[in-house]
């Protein structure tokens, strides 16, 4: 079993602005050292460059950049790549970057590029959930850690499909 973690949370400079959003979390470092962590940036996996224009999920479900370019196809490819990685490595849960049009699990930006958050999820978070993978954000670290520890203590006997 492995854990999927947004690459930007692991310190990789893959965000749209070329930055990382590194989590300084001892437990993540331990799991990484144990070989349990798989880093993934669905946007990069979908073929988008770093840096890239900011993009937001629109009310109609499309994802567009601030200049109006439709990048939905790249986001779909990235979500599918993340799911394939999860299936290949028996991932049961993921820690994804909140507010992202790919990885947001509770809130995403409104699509108006004005900083307004709305309840919603990114394409990758939604696809993983549809396939039975539990998704957490960096705002839910205690719940994520507790869930992973439960999986580890149970021997992780069921699989994702």
- Rounded to the nearest angstrom, the radius of gyration is 15 Å
The global form is globular
Share of β-strand residues: 15-25%
Mean pLDDT: 94
The arrangement of helices and strands along the chain is EHEHEEHEEEHEH
Keywords:
single chain, about 160 residues, alpha/beta, 4-stranded parallel sheet, two-stranded antiparallel ribbon, 8 strands, about 30% helix, about 15% strand, globular, disordered C terminus
Topology (SSEs and partners):
Blueprint: E1 3-6, H1 26-33, E2 37-40, H2 42-45, E3 55-57, E4 63-65, H3 72-88, E5 93-96, E6 107-109, E7 117-119, H4 123-130, E8 134-137, H5 141-154
Parallel strand pairs: 1-2, 1-5, 5-8
Antiparallel strand pairs: 3-4, 6-7
Helix pairs in contact: 3-4
